From TrEMBL:
<feature type="domain" description="Aminotransferase class I/classII large">
    <location>
        <begin position="61"/>
        <end position="320"/>
    </location>
</feature>
<dbReference type="InterPro" id="IPR015424">
    <property type="entry name" value="PyrdxlP-dep_Trfase"/>
</dbReference>
<dbReference type="InterPro" id="IPR004839">
    <property type="entry name" value="Aminotransferase_I/II_large"/>
</dbReference>
<dbReference type="InterPro" id="IPR015422">
    <property type="entry name" value="PyrdxlP-dep_Trfase_small"/>
</dbReference>
<dbReference type="InterPro" id="IPR036086">
    <property type="entry name" value="ParB/Sulfiredoxin_sf"/>
</dbReference>
<dbReference type="InterPro" id="IPR015421">
    <property type="entry name" value="PyrdxlP-dep_Trfase_major"/>
</dbReference>
<protein>
    <recommendedName>
        <fullName>Aminotransferase class I/classII large domain-containing protein</fullName>
    </recommendedName>
</protein>
<dbReference type="Pfam" id="PF00155">
    <property type="entry name" value="Aminotran_1_2"/>
</dbReference>
Length: 564
């Protein structure tokens, strides 16, 4: 029975080629170049695939860019004027284009934006006088590493590995390193910690800083990923009261924020630092390259800050989508360790095997869904990092991982498939692999019938069974409950299934006149709630293009096991 599993490869490839959120982008393969001082970054992985379906390698918001903010950027480009001029030398009309947002320097100061950010972070617009903006957090991290008092730097000794930009910036500034924070003039903490997902609540991190930072030192606390914590994120990070109290002890705390992750705008680049005092902000401004933030980045962030509904969706959807991914990956790989807080925008996964991590990384690239292999940049070869993405996007990567697992279990022998009935092509979405625990039965089974089916199959020299038919949206079993029990009894975990568009009008729940009280909504609802119906409550039919009503099992290809 082991070789009973085989995916409809063509159907899977077809689905993977058409993501919902954005058009398919095609990239030329290129060999990455190493630059001195440049940190290895997962964002480069999208350029390693021929056909990008969804990027799981960077920890941006799964909702994608803020719609209102995208519109704000577009408005800056609206209405460029084309002017006619007379060239006195050529004696001919010449066209000149005017677009203020492109041709003029942006404002050095943007008080409305500064007030918005200060209110977002602290609930107090007066904190704006302590803010400095930069071309992404990376520019500001580099600036802080150069501006801090001379001496060694210390990364968070409580975590195994953290965002490497701080190490790069401090090393390039000529600083040595120490594992003892009391000996450091600059301490770098990332909280929540990217990539491991560790997080210290306010009391813990403030207590640690009080116990370990020496007078005269700077403490950099990167809170870029804190915004995913929920509407109470302001109460969970380092408090303004604590920052002020540390200033009196000559310990200066700088809070770093990258806006490119929470608002999914890595292509625009904008970050901020909330300094402990206005004087420290002014000293950093004196060292900063002017005009480092574009008008487009400012307009985007301003509009994003004003769209509260986007954040509310983020807080609602991200934990649910993360749980969806973790649940399915745990079923597929029960020995893997899944780390990080449940509200974070990524999953840190220890596969326990360098070879497995490499193969998972290659599998993800091959299906157009790049992930981050922690061997690159973090020196953790058994670990991979997956960004949280929508269930539809994850389904493409999940199918690829199911195929990988079935091949690893020697379930990839060639199968023969029967033909389907002549039905509207929109009825069938394709044949794909599914994990048995992901399926949702809507009916109970007859025990004696399941046992007879097992006996029947056991005596066959070549075992042939129709595939299970499932609803494409909720993975509800439409036909094949007894076959599903057979697969479970055989110890199978990954099986092929025909995925159908259950809402299509050519699919009927019961023949005309039989149990008219049962409808599709009841079938889906009973399965999703786990309240299964009695055996044989439904008898699904499909209408052929000629108008005949046929048992829906005609849609199931015959999955034949190769005889041993």
């Amino acid at each position: 029975m082991a070789s009973l599993v085989k995916a409809g490869r063509a159907a899977i490839v077809r689905r993977a080629s058409f993501p919902v959120r954005c058009p398919v982008w095609t990239f030329a393969r290129s060999h990455s170049r190493r630059f001195f001082g440049a940190e290895t970054h997962g964002g480069d992985d999208i350029h390693k695939v021929d056909r990008l379906v969804c990027d799981f390698s960077v920890t941006t918001n799964a909702l994608g860019p803020v719609p209102a903010a995208v519109e704000a950027v577009k408005q800056l480009l609206e209405g460029p004027e084309t002017l006619q001029t007379w060239n006195m030398h050529l004696g001919a009309d010449q066209k000149v284009t005017s677009s203020p947002a492109i041709e003029h320097y942006p404002q050095r100061a943007d008080q409305p934006l500064e007030n918005l950010v200060a209110t977002f972070l602290r609930g107090d617009p007066n904190e704006a006088q302590k803010l400095i903006f930069g071309n992404g957090a990376s520019e500001l991290i580099d600036l802080l590493a150069r501006a801090a008092p001379q001496g060694k730097f210390c990364l968070n000794p409580q975590t195994e590995v953290q965002y490497r930009e701080y190490q790069r910036a401090c090393t390039n500034a000529g600083r040595g390193t120490t594992d003892n924070p009391t000996e450091a003039s600059i301490i770098c903490l990332v909280n929540p910690n990217n990539p491991t997902g560790d997080f210290m609540e306010r009391e813990e991190i403030e207590g640690w800083i009080s116990s370990n930072a020496a007078p005269g030192s700077w403490v950099l606390v990167d809170e870029s990923m804190l915004f995913w914590a929920g509407p109470d994120f302001q109460q969970r990070g380092v408090s303004s009261h604590f920052v002020d109290s540390m200033v009196k002890k000559h310990i200066h705390i700088f809070l770093v924020q990258s806006w490119t992750k929470i608002f999914a705008c890595t292509g625009l680049r904008i970050g901020t630092v909330l300094c402990p005092t206005q004087e420290k902000r002014d000293s950093l401004l004196a060292m900063q390259v002017p005009w480092s933030v574009t008008a487009f980045a400012r307009a985007y962030l301003r509009a994003a800050m004003e769209d509260r509904s986007y954040l509310e969706r983020t807080w609602a959807e991200t934990p649910a989508w993360r749980l969806h991914m973790v649940t399915r990956l745990k079923r597929l790989h029960p020995t893997w360790q899944f780390l990080g807080k449940p509200w974070l925008s990524w999953i840190w996964i220890d596969t326990g095997s360098t070879d497995d991590a490499k193969d998972v990384y290659r599998t993800a690239l091959h299906c157009g869904c790049p992930i981050r292999h922690a061997a690159s940049g973090y020196d953790k070869p058994s670990i991979v990092r997956l960004a949280v993405r929508r269930p539809y996007d994850f389904s493409v990567l999940y199918q690829a991982l199911l195929r990988r697992q079935s091949n690893a279990a020697s379930l990839g022998k060639q199968m023969t498939f029967g033909t389907s009935a002549d039905v509207n092509p929109d009825v069938i979405e394709g044949v794909r692999l599914v994990h048995i625990d992901d399926l949702r039965p809507h009916e109970e089974v007859l025990t004696d019938r399941a046992e007879k089916l097992q006996e029947y199959v056991r005596d066959l020299p070549v075992k042939i069974l129709p595939a299970i038919i499932i609803d494409s949206q909720y993975d509800v079993v439409i036909d094949g409950h007894h076959r599903l029990e057979l697969f479970k009894a055989a110890g199978l975990t990954i099986i092929p299934a025909v995925s159908v568009n259950y809402e299509h009008p050519d699919i009927l729940v019961n023949p005309p006149g039989m149990r008219p009280d049962v409808c599709k909504e009841q079938v889906i609802g009973s399965a999703v709630r786990g309240q299964t119906m009695e055996p044989k409550t439904t008898q699904h039919l499909v209408r052929s293009r000629g108008g005949a009503l046929l048992p829906i099992i005609v849609l199931a290809p015959q999955i034949a096991e190769v005889a041993k």
